[in-house]
Each structure stands twice: as C-alpha cells, then as structure tokens.
Amino acid sequence: MGIYEEIASNKRRSYLLVFFFLVFVIFIGYVVGFFYGSGYFGIGMALFIGIIYFLFSYYGGANAILAMTKAKEAKKPQYTYLINTVEGISIAAGLSKPPKVYVIEDSALNAFATGRDPEHSSVTVTTGLMEKLNKLELEGVIAHEISHIKNFDIRVMMLAAVMVGMTVLLSDFLLRSFLWGSHGRKKEGGNLTVIFIVVGLVLAILAPLIGEAIKLAISRKREYLADASGALLTRYPKGLADALRKIRNDPDPLVDHANKATAHLFISTPFRQSKRSFIKNLFSTHPPIDDRIKRLEKM
C-alpha cells in the first residue's frame, strides 16, 4: 500500500471507530436513563458530563501532561538543531506556526506531541533520542509527531479519553442502580424491562473494558496514520523505519515520568514490553513496532 492509500485507509478506520464509540456511549447513557426514569435524560446527562470533561481537558490537558512528564522548554543555543528541525518540518507540513519544543532529561528513546490544535501545540523529545538518532532518523520522528498535530490526532484521542471516562462514570451509575434499586422506573414485569435489566447489568460490568479497548484501537490506528503522514513529509520512509528500529532495540525504554494516562501519546510505549499476546495487543496503546517498520519499508 502506498503512502497516500495508507493515510486514507487509516483516516477512514479512525473516524469509523470514533463514530462507533460515540454510539456506544449514547447507548449506555440511554440505558442508565431507563433506570432513572427516562432514557433521554440519560443521553442528556452523558452529553452534559462529556462536554464539561472535554472542555477541561481541551484547555488544561496539554500543560498538565508537560508537567507530569517533567518536560522543559528547549532553548537556543543548546537545542538549536532540534528547534530548527521542528520549524523546518512544520513549514513542510503547512502549519501556520511551529509547535513549541520541549525536552525530557531521560536516556530512553521516545517523543510525543500534545496540544489542542496546531496553533496551540508542542513536540517533546527525550535527550536519549537526540543523542542516539542520526539526522534522517530524528527528522523521521519529528515528522511523525508533527503529523499527529496536523491530523488533529491529539483532539481525537482527547475525545476518546473523555468517552472512556464517561463509560466508567455511566457504568458506575448502572451498578448503583442495581445496588440501591431503580429510581423513577417502576419494577414492572414486562419483557422490555427484563431485557434492559440484563443489558444494563452486562454493560455495567463490561462497558469500561469495552470503552478502553475502543480508545486504544483508535490510538493504534492514529499511530499508523502518523507513520504514513510523517513519511510523506520527509519523502524518506526509511528514516522513520530506522528510528523505530533503534527505539525497539533500546535496552532501557522506560521513560521515568510516563504513566498509563500519557502512554498513548509517545511514539512507542514508554514502558518495558513483555511478550505480546492477543489480549495484550487488544489493550496496547501502540501497534507492534515490527509491523510499523514493515509498513514503512513497503512505502
């Protein structure tokens, strides 16, 4: 598959996953509302909570992430080459202004992008990445991160994170309704009520897991998309492929201040990896790095 086909395919799949995620959250909201007297009340409550959560994440999330990871703003002349690389690739990507540049003092090879939109964004790299990658490899990584910004991946993943939070909250409402009894819904013996009770109980238990699995599936698709978009920016897929190969072989990949809340942002998982399995792949923030390298080498 060529670069343009890879980008188009991953965009379609990402939008489809977000659509199904939204339908899933609305359905949970309706089921919660059913037990509290009105399905439409549940949908309204879900949307209201989601909007408040999204606005909080939208305007404060990036600064919180930079603070959590102990990132410090890169300054000239110490990081002149890094800043110039970000600025040059930003121009190639057609961004109206380059993202801010931050550095994490860590020997691990990693990087991430954050921000609510291209005008309010940043690229962060570890010192280990700058020390161990050559010019073409570093450009490949920076192009990958700027592609996340250009493609509004941060906003997509922010929306997915909000929806996961909503599924957890709504499932908690469901569990409480079973523990304390229905509110506003008479205990009727109709088939519809029985069906909703069964569905509600299943959703209360499984909804958080399903929501997290969908969010991570979106994250993996956006990584493939950023790989393809980054290769298109540099016109040199091998640069990013070689960088990913070095990241894969890093003997100490653990980023000290990374956590599960920020793991999906990094170009590769910031934790030590154990042997992959179907379940681990299902709940992985990133696709297999070998698969990403193979896709880039075929472009």
Beta content: 5-15%
Strand order of the largest sheet: 1-2-4-3
Number of strand elements: 4
Rg calculated over all Cα atoms = 21 Å
Order of helices and strands: HHEHEEEHHHHHHH
What's the domain count? 1
Q: Helical content, roughly?
A: 55-70%
Largest sheet: number of strands, sense, barrel closure:
4 strands, mixed
Unreliable sequence segments: none
Structural class: alpha+beta
Distance between the termini: 7 Å
Mean pLDDT reading? 82
Inertia-based shape: elongated
SS element count, helices: 10
Task: Describe the overall structure.
This protein is an alpha+beta fold. The chain has one domain. The chain is 66% helix and 7% strand. The protein has ten helices and four strands; from the N terminus they run H-H-E-H-E-E-E-H-H-H-H-H-H-H. It has helices spanning 3-35, 39-68, 80-93, 127-132, 135-150, 153-180, 191-234, 237-248, 278-282, 289-298, and strands at residues 72-73, 100-104, 111-117, 120-126. A four-stranded mixed β-sheet has the order 1-2-4-3, sandwiched between helices. Strand 3 (111-117) and strand 4 form a beta hairpin. It is elongated and about 65 Å long.
Short summary of the structure?
The protein is α+β, with helices and mostly antiparallel strands and 299 residues long.
List keywords for this structure.
four-stranded mixed sheet; 299 residues; alpha+beta; 66% helix
Describe how the helices and strands are arranged:
Elements lengths: L2 H33 L3 H30 L3 E2 L6 H14 L6 E5 L6 E7 L2 E7 H6 L2 H16 L2 H28 L10 H44 L2 H12 L29 H5 L6 H10 L1
